[in-house]
């Protein structure tokens, strides 16, 4: 892998501690970092290199999936870390940074390939990108890449504005927009499973699939993020990005050995084919919910409006369920049900594919006792695949019994989403990052929902914490003769 300087803005922040350092460490242990690799951490606080390294080591002890015991290997890892104070708005600080980066590159005999990771709020993206350009940090002989975190915009217009600003300093193929759901191993496998298995390929159409259910339920509430969450709600926090990405990844049809460009082109086709919702139709197809007090795993929890930092009259959505349709050859007529919420009964991200009953000669008189065939992709926290088949005792006939065929990987073997994504960004593989077209088209599709919520055209339903959301989310499916699977 090519030599890289990893320039991290927000090096003392929460994301760096919880995700980025552990991911880098695990990549290091697996031998997946470049030989000439250097990290320059940036933050407002004055820190020595020593203290910075101690902080990194502490974060590994708390958050790495592998133990980071003291010793040569940990020292070798930490040795790559330098710290530099930086005020995001001060041009001189970038000039100083350039000198440090150049000095490190000279020390390592490394080409000036620079990955700029912006682990800071989106309000800083533009200033940082412009300063990288103006200081000369971005104009060395090697490559440059910009990795950014969500939220990418607050609505369609603000996303377009932000993109226009970034594109003054970085080309689209230099921008890596993280959607950490795309880094989850099972999400990455969706593409491969479909490509490599004729049995799945053959079934992946409206001839065989009755509906698709995509759920991302969480047990946590707003946590300490009131200031952020109360302005975005579930629709912006989860639906516009993670949920629509899952939909695209599930619905694409890919030829063998597709390139990154093909994957992204096909994803764009899926989202282009999403039937638009008019603002007036949102209420009939989208359920908007907010959690009330309840119990999570036996412990009482307060309702959303009693959470610290949340106004008593907040109408923010903590739950959203929707019925979507993809108007293309493969999926016409198949409802895609999407649901995500906080303070739900269980933490679980999964996709359930419900197959149709074949009509005609195969149908037997006692078919009514049969459960539908289901294919389930468990994405997190457990990773696995389940197939629900029907069986019955051949001697005694009687009712059919559902039989679950399970495959589960053990938690330990699964790399964290951030490991996959950082590795891909270092290699220059954009497959599992959100292309601007996808981001823009997602906002475009979601915009009428934002408008309808704002104009209060969609009633805010409450649900008790520790349940599967408001009853209206069940009715959304029931009107088509479907129900959420695996809600027990
Ligand atoms: C983040 C959201 O993007 O995803 C959080 O901002 C949410 O609100 C988180 O909790 C869920 O991620 P995961 O990987 O735990 O499903």
Automatic annotation (TrEMBL):
This protein's UniProt keywords: Carbohydrate metabolism, Glucose metabolism, NADP, Oxidoreductase
The Glucose-6-phosphate dehydrogenase NAD-binding domain, residue ranges: 7-188
Residues given in the record as substrate binding sites: 180, 184, 218, 237, 342, 347
Gene3D superfamilies: Dihydrodipicolinate Reductase, domain 2, NAD(P)-binding Rossmann-like Domain
GO molecular function, one term: glucose-6-phosphate dehydrogenase activity
InterPro entries xrefs: G6P_DH, G6P_DH_C, G6P_DH_NAD-bd, NAD(P)-bd_dom_sf
Residues annotated as catalytic: 242
Pathway stated in the Swiss-Prot or TrEMBL entry: Carbohydrate degradation; pentose phosphate pathway; D-ribulose 5-phosphate from D-glucose 6-phosphate (oxidative stage): step 1/3
Xref: Pfam families: G6PD_C, G6PD_N
Positions bound to NADP(+): 10-17, 44, 87-88, 150
Chain ranges of the Glucose-6-phosphate dehydrogenase C-terminal domain: 193-485
Function: Catalyzes the oxidation of glucose 6-phosphate to 6-phosphogluconolactone.
Name under which the protein is recorded: Glucose-6-phosphate 1-dehydrogenase
Protein source organism: Paenibacillus artemisiicola
């Amino acid at each position: 892998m090519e030599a890289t300087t990893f320039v991290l803005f927000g090096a003392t922040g929460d994301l760096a501690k919880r995700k980025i350092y552990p991911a880098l460490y695990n990549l290091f242990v697996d031998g997946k970092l470049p030989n000439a690799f250097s990290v320059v951490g940036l933050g407002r606080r004055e820190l020595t290199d020593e203290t910075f390294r101690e902080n990194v080591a502490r974060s590994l002890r708390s958050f790495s999936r592998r133990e980071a015991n003291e010793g040569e290997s940990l020292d070798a890892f930490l040795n790559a870390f330098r710290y530099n104070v930086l005020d995001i708005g001060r041009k001189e600080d970038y000039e100083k940074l350039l000198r440090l980066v150049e000095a490190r590159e000279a020390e390592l005999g490394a080409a000036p390939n620079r990955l700029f990771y912006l682990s800071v709020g989106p309000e800083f993206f533009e200033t940082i990108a412009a300063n990288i350009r103006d200081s000369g940090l971005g104009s060395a002989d090697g490559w440059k890449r910009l990795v950014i975190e969500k939220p990418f915009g607050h609505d369609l217009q603000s996303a377009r504005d932000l993109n226009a600003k970034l594109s003054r300093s970085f080309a689209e193929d230099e921008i890596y927009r993280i959607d950490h759901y795309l880094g989850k191993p099972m999400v990455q496998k969706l593409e491969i499973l479909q490509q490599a298995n004729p049995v799945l390929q053959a079934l992946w159409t409206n001839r065989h699939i009755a509906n698709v259910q995509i759920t991302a339920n969480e047990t946590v509430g707003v946590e300490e993020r009131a200031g952020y969450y109360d302005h975005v709600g579930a629709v912006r926090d989860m639906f516009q990005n993670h949920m629509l990405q899952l939909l695209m990844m599930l619905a694409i049809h890919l030829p063998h050995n597709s390139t990154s460009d093909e994957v992204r082109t096909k994803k764009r086709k899926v989202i282009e084919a999403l039937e638009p919702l008019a603002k007036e139709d949102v209420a009939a197809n989208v359920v908007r919910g907010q959690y009330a007090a309840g119990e999570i795993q036996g412990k009482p929890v307060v309702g959303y409006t009693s959470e610290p930092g949340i106004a008593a009259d907040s109408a923010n959505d903590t739950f959203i369920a929707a019925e979507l349709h993809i108007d293309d050859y493969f999926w016409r007529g198949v409802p895609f049900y999407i649901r995500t919420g906080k303070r739900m009964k269980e933490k679980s991200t999964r996709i359930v594919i419900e197959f149709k009953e074949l009509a005609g000669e195969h149908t037997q008189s006692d078919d009514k006792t049969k459960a539908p065939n289901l294919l389930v992709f468990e994405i997190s926290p457990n990773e696995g695949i389940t197939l629900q088949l029907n069986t019955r005792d051949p001697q005694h006939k009687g009712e059919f019994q559902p039989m679950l065929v399970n495959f589960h990987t053990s938690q330990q073997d699964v790399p964290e989403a951030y490991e996959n994504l950082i590795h891909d960004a270092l290699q220059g593989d954009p497959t599992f990052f959100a292309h601007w077209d996808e981001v823009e088209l997602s906002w475009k599709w979601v915009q009428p929902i934002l408008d309808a919520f704002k104009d209060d055209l969609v009633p805010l339903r409450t649900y008790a914490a520790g349940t599967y959301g408001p009853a209206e989310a069940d009715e959304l499916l029931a009107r088509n003769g479907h129900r959420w699977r695996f809600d027990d």
